[in-house]
Amino acid sequence: MDMDETMSSAELDEMIKALSHPVRRDILNWLKQPEVYFADQEHPLSIGVCAGKIDQKTGLSQSTVSAHLATLQRAGFISSKKVGQWSFFSRNEDVIQHFLARLTDQL
Amino acid sequence: MDMDETMSSAELDEMIKALSHPVRRDILNWLKQPEVYFADQEHPLSIGVCAGKIDQKTGLSQSTVSAHLATLQRAGFISSKKVGQWSFFSRNEDVIQHFLARLTDQL
DNA sequence: AATATATATCGTAAATTTTCGATATGCAAC
DNA sequence: GTTGCATATCGAAAATTTACGATATATATT
């Protein structure tokens, strides 16, 4: 009954590639403590962090950051919730933990 | 007195990039159990695994594999010992463990 | 010395990734 | 419905990575 929650090697590959860009690791880190890095957000941080705020922090263009966020999301590290015209991003802690466990024993 | 054995963020970046290619992860894995994957090696496996044996296993060209091995070595994951005309590669288990620990709390 | 073998390095072509500006889409306010 | 704002997607240029064959280097054998 699919109790086994192991990721395929293709998924692992996608995840490692997602981590292989410093800006994407930065984003993941910022999302770890939104109250530290995004204290100025009007909307409650509990929903997640607004894409625009992340754009600002990176200094990269809106479209580039949008692509980075999509990469992180495809890898499963983050999710987005759409509220009105905004997208709010937050970490999937379980996926991250699972990834680390998998990497630890596959490496 | 430099008790702190923490890697810089540039080093971490180099290490993650080194892992971001499936062939390099394969190599690291093969080197984990040389007796399983390189049972046919004439020289004692305790010295490490001969570059040529790794070439064969990947199916890639000699020069390409040499470059992959250099990448893994620059990242610190493996070391090489030169004996005669051969280069023998082996894992740096301590570095790998240290990397995993660092990644686990930085991610 | 000449030859053979193992590996590293060089130059380069192909593939992939990163980035941007422009545009499209979707929602909100007027 | 038009205007404004937030985000996603598109198309293309630039940068980086991967791969190869050719060559260099170094050791071993004859």
How would you sum up this structure, described in words?
The structure is a homodimer of 107-residue chains. Helix content of chain A is 56%, strand content 13%. The mean pLDDT of chain A is 94. Chain A is globular. The first copy, chain A, contains 6 helices and 3 strands, in the order H-H-H-E-H-H-E-E-H. In chain A, strands 1-3-2 form a 3-stranded antiparallel β-sheet. Chain A has one domain (9-106): Orthogonal Bundle (Arc Repressor Mutant, subunit A). Chain A has helices spanning 9-19, 22-30, 34-37, 51-58, 62-75, 93-106; strands spanning 49-50, 78-83, 86-91. Chain A is an alpha+beta fold. The first copy, chain A, starts with 8 loop residues before the first helix and ends with a helix. In chain A, helix 1 (9-19) runs antiparallel to helix 5 and helix 4 (51-58) packs across helix 5.
| SSE pattern of chain A, N- to C-terminal | HHHEHHEEH
Distance between the termini of chain A: 28 Å
Query: How many structurally independent domains of chain A?
Result: 1
Overall spatial form of chain A: globular
Task: Give the tally of β-strands of chain A.
Answer: 3
Radius of gyration of chain A: 14 Å
Report the top-level CATH class of chain A.
Answer: Mainly Alpha
Unreliable residue runs of chain A? none
Largest interface, C-beta within 8 A: A-B, 16 and 16 residues
Strand content of chain A: 5-15%
